[in-house]
Design goal:
Its EC number is 1.4.1.1. It is an enzyme of class 1 (oxidoreductase). With about 375 residues, this protein is α/β, with parallel strands linked by helices. It has two domains: about 1-120 and about 305-370, Rossmann fold (3-Layer(aba) Sandwich), CATH 3.40.50.720; about 130-300, Rossmann fold, CATH 3.40.50. Helices cover about 35% and strands about 15% of the residues. The chain is built from 14 helices and 15 strands. Helix 6 packs across helix 7 and helix 10 packs across helix 11. The longest helix has 22 residues, at about 305-325.
């Protein structure tokens, strides 16, 4: 198979979908790899490194899309890429369709096969291709939150861990999954007073057992959230419903209950955000303020640490990508049920129910394609 990796063109997205080591594995297995010129430079991987691994360098994004049977990316295609995607081409990337209707309709019109990293789901409900970036984003959320709590950047002027004789900052984390857990570890390590809210008692029992003493758990509901808001300094939104829009746990009217200079970091922004006032921002212009509350809603947070992120992502995606290349997407999705759940759009049909429901689109069960079309 011909695997092609375009350079990411989303604002300040420096990651790349494949490392030179990953390219070498494809070549060893008899596949052809094509990398757009300078696609890996933002992550610290030179064109020469890819060529040494056996990949061919292509001069333009147009040539890259034209050549590849499978396109591997990090972020969803953006408008300039829509017309480059062709029928039956396999696109393997993060899509987050439920938060972006124009992208969804563009991929329907392209009649490509869209396999989304974020909905690849194992039988135990874990999300193996979302986990590495969730780990990065959860840890970064605390770094960024601590930074923006500084007065010159718009925050209250609070040191996250405090010092002897002063209280540490209060951190509220909405969601006890991978992002929330990683954020809690980081915030606790810096000495903050941390509370995780979740709706799962078994998950909260687990977190209570493994977290340090400065991390507490509480049932997530509107009453508890509202009671917390007047005293909290940093809120991290870490709620995920695979393939669907995140629920709004903090509404616009709740902002008035917070002290001016409170910082909100919504890691769920890719799925529409769990804070109603969340709007996607970029690393170039990462924040805005509403009702005196500073919002940090960068949609590609791990792109700020591209070397770490690219290595972590390739470690997770490469085994699946090799199987897709070896057997084709249909056979691979039959052999690996978690890949089957990653299929969102096939040849113009929406085959992921949560996406169809979000935009009131016709839904076609993915089994139709795996059982009836060769």
């Amino acid at each position: 198979m011909r695997i092609a990796v375009p350079r990411e063109i989303k604002n300040n997205e420096n990651r790349v979908a494949l490392t030179p080591a990953g390219a070498k594995e494809f070549v060893k297995n008899g596949h052809e790899v094509f990398i757009q010129r300078s696609a890996g430079e933002g992550s610290g991987f030179s064109d020469a490194a890819y060529q040494y691994a056996g990949a061919e360098i292509l001069p333009t994004i147009e040539a890259t899309y034209e050549t590849g049977e499978m396109i591997m990316k990090v972020k969803e295609p953006i408008a300039p890429e829509y017309d480059l995607i062709r029928e039956d081409q396999l696109i393997f990337t993060y899509f987050h369709f439920a938060s972006h209707e124009p992208l969804t309709k563009a991929m329907i019109n392209s009649k490509a096969v869209c396999l989304a990293y974020e909905t690849v789901e194992k039988q135990d409900r874990s999300l193996p291709l979302l986990v590495p970036m969730s780990e990065v984003a959860g840890r970064m959320a605390v770094q960024k939150g601590a930074n923006y709590l500084e007065k010159p950047l718009g925050g209250r002027g609070i040191l996250l861990g405090g010092v002897p004789g002063t209280l540490p900052a209060k951190v509220l984390i909405l969601g006890g999954g991978i992002v929330g857990t990683q954020a809690a570890w980081m915030a606790a390590g810096l000495g903050a007073d941390v509370t995780i809210m979740d709706v799962s008692l078994p998950r909260m029992r687990y977190l209570s057992d493994v977290m340090p003493k400065n991390v507490k758990t509480m049932m997530s509901n509107e009453y508890n959230i509202r009671n917390f808001l007047p005293s909290v300094d940093l809120i991290i939104g870490a709620v995920l419903i695979p393939g669907a829009k995140a629920p709004h746990l903090i509404t616009k009217d709740m902002l008035r209950e917070m002290v001016p200079g409170t910082v909100l970091v919504d890691v769920a922004v890719d799925q529409g955000g769990c804070i109603e006032t969340c709007q996607p921002t970029t690393h170039e212009n990462p924040t805005y303020t509403i009702e005196g509350v500073l919002h940090y809603c960068v949609a590609n947070m791990p792109g700020a640490v591209p070397y770490t992120s690219t290595l972590a992502l390739t470690n997770a995606t490469l085994p699946y990508a090799l199987e897709l290349a070896r057997t084709g997407w249909q056979e691979a999705c039959i052999r690996f049920p978690e890949l089957k759940s990653g299929l969102n759009i096939i040849r113009g049909d929406v085959v992921y129910e949560a996406v169809a429901n979000t935009f009131d689109l016709p839904y076609v069960p993915v089994s139709y394609y795996l059982n009836h079309i060769s």
